[in-house]
Amino acid sequence: MSPAVRSFVWRVLGYALVLEGMLAPAILFWPNFRDNLGALKTLAPLPMLKDMVDELGQGGVGAYVVGQQFFKGCNTLGTAAAVLFAMGAVAGEAHRRTLEIWLARPVSRARQLTERYLTGAAALLVPVYATTATIPWLLARVDESMELGELMLCATHQSFSLLAIYSVTFLLSSLGRNPTGIAVAMLFLTTFQFAIYLVKQVTHYSFFRLTDVRVFMKILGSGELPWRFALPLLALSVLSFAGAQLAFARRVP
Amino acid sequence: MLPSPARDRRIVARGLTRRFGDKLAVDAVDLDLGPGGIVGLLGPNGSGKSTLLRMLVGLVRPDAGTAAIDGAALAGDGTAVRRRCTYAPGEIALYDEMKGREHVAWLLRGRGLGALRRALDLAGALGLPMEKRVHTYSHGMKRQLLFVAALAPEAGVRILDEPTEGLDPSKRAHMLGLLEEDAAGGTTVLLSSHHLGEVDRSCDQLLFLNAGRVLSRETADSVHAREARLLVVDWGDGAPDATLSGALEGLGAESVRVAGGRAAVVLPAPDPRAFLARLAADDRLPAPRSIEYGVTSLGELYRDVYGVEGT
Fold first, then answer.
1. Mutation site, A10, A97, A103, interface B, largest B CB count within 10 A
2. Which of A26, A124, A157, A221 has the lowest tally of Cβ within 10 angstroms?
3. How many domains does chain A have?
4. How far is A96 from chain B (nearest CA, A)?
5. Is B11-218's fold the same as B225-305's?
6. Cβ-defined contact of A106 to B98 (cutoff 8 Å)
């Protein structure tokens, strides 16, 4: 197994295991959650959290599952993975001074950067789909069910969001030399975005409004992707990748 | 699809220029090297050697000028050029977590299985432990790994940035011997060094670079002939430079440079005995602290022969 494939496999396995580790106990806990919704609502410290518990109560198991897998799992762990997988893509090579040997091979820069982008993106998104695919089986353990196709649509929408974060970080990595600095900046930004999501007065300014329980419930209800949100996310990814290619083409080792 | 330009095993550059901010790293360099032979690019640190070599292989885009390597014009990101030549960077930074074998395979991506086989044979001949991880390698072993990857592929041109830096004399001689064999087969090798005496014996031609410009083009023989006419006499601070200069010129030196009590004397012939006899007989001059003959460092060559200070 080549070092690149080995690294890919470890990243996918590690990230998928943690994601599944967050998902499986949550689903198996569903009956307890359902029976204690009233008490949980009184315990919620923020108005936004009370609203969320309300939404979960009204939406039933579907809202609970998308909340656990996408809003909680992917928006937190997935965001961290997106930043971690992209931060060193180019800046990491510059930081460890291996950029020169990377670029010295007889392979075009555009191809090398595209390969790196796609490998990272696959490592980021494969676990989202793989863990989502386990949901119907897990739900059957607690006598519930959901359509796999609808869940995969939710996973696709979540992927657009994670891909946008990954692509912006990838662009910064193509421009910079300090992967730690890039990671700190991106994690600060995303943590700040998550924090303002929880404040009712400014929640509509948060990036995470695009991937909250309400959006996923609409997907489950309509059986369609919310293109009003998905297209800008895809456009951001495409523009960031194009910017990364431009920056990388002129990069000096 | 257009046919590939014919291979000519040459390195051609016209007016190659690169600036980093205010610093002119490479200033309108022209080259016409090969086919075949080893060319040494010599110059002190910061003279522009690495930038010039990186431009030739497309790693740094020139601000002006053109180049062609083995018939392929330097354009875009330089992939066409890198397909026709091999390159070993001067800076040793490798993926420490890879095994030697994996690393060579990684470096040789796009070069074919034959190149990998040759690289493993070469590595075996050099005694590199290819099943060990690179983090266990010494500086010299890492240098040899890069060298092996640059020498293994079939190529008309090889560009090597300080390939012998940090190697012990026997390994250096081994590597230069391999390059000489390769060049004898028609490959053009351009290698850089900032140590005169490390590589010059293997080179058919020497290019001296300073402040981004080619200062002089020499052969190893012509440099050694210069060395044979250069006498360095040091009086320390005890004697005024003007006195030394006047006295030495009167002793039949072809030219004299004096600074800080140190005189670099270019002799009229490659034999110092007559001049030393006159020097010993001249009672206007105090006894020197030291006399050096026939040994010239790159810095001394620049200072004493080319009159370039600060090297």
1. A103
2. A221
3. 1
4. 7
5. no
6. no
User: Per-domain residue ranges for chain B?
Assistant: 11-218, 225-305
In this complex, do B77 and A108 lie within 8 Å of one another by their Cβ atoms? yes
Per-residue DSSP letter, A198: T
Task: Provide, as residue numbers in chain A, all residues whose Cβ is less than 8 Å from the Cβ of B91.
Answer: 97, 100
Check pLDDT > 70 for residue B150: yes
- The ipTM of this complex is 0.86
* Nearest Cβ partner for B61 among A97, A101, A250: A250
> Distance between CA A245 and CA A93 in Å, rounded?
16
Q: CB distance B93–A249 less than 8 Å?
A: no
Domain B11-218 CATH (choose: 3.40.50.300, 3.90.650.10, 3.40.50.170, 3.10.150.10): 3.40.50.300
Q: How many CA atoms lie within 13 A of B291 on its CB side?
A: 12
CA nearest neighbour of A26 among A79, A81, A64:
A64
Residue A240 domain boundaries: 3-249
**CATH, domain range B225-305:** 3.30.70
Are B39 and B205 contacting, i.e. CB atoms less than 8 angstroms apart? yes
Beta bridge partners of residue B32, listed in sequence order: B12
| Locus of tokens 């919620």 | A44
Q: d(Cα A121, Cα A163) in Å, to the nearest integer?
A: 7
**How many whole angstroms separate alpha carbon B298 and alpha carbon B209?**
11
Mark yes or no for CB contact A253/B60 under 8 Å.
Answer: yes
Q: Chain B: residue nearest A252 by CA?
A: B60
Residue A113: how many CA atoms within 13 Å on its side-chain side?
Answer: 25
| Tokens matching residue B214 | 């080619």
CB contact (8 A) between residue A110 and residue B77: yes
Name the residue with tokens 């001949």. B125
Residue of B nearest to A251 (CA): B60
CB contact under 8 A, B59 and A2: no
Q: How far is CA A84 from CA A7, A76, A98, A138, A167, in A?
A: 13, 12, 19, 29, 12
* Chain A interface with B: residues with Cβ < 8 Å: 2-3, 96-98, 100-101, 103-110, 249-250, 252-253
Q: pLDDT tens for residues A233-247?
A: 999 999 999 999 999
Across the interface, whether the CB atoms of A103 and B59 are under 8 A apart is answered yes
State pLDDT tens for residues A91-137: 999 999 999 999 999 999 999 999 999 999 999 999 999 999 999 99
Nearest to A221 by CA among A74, A33, A49, A60: A60
Query: CB burial class (10 A; 0-12, 13-18, 19+) of residue A24?
Result: middle
In chain B, whose CA is at the least distance from the CA of A4? B106
Give me the torsion for CA of B82, B85, B91, B95, rounded to 10°.
70
Q: How far apart are CA B148 and CA B123, in angstroms?
A: 6
Give tens-digit pLDDT for A196-231. 998 888 999 999 999 999 999 999 999 999 999 999
Distance of CA B42 to the CA centre of its chain: 4
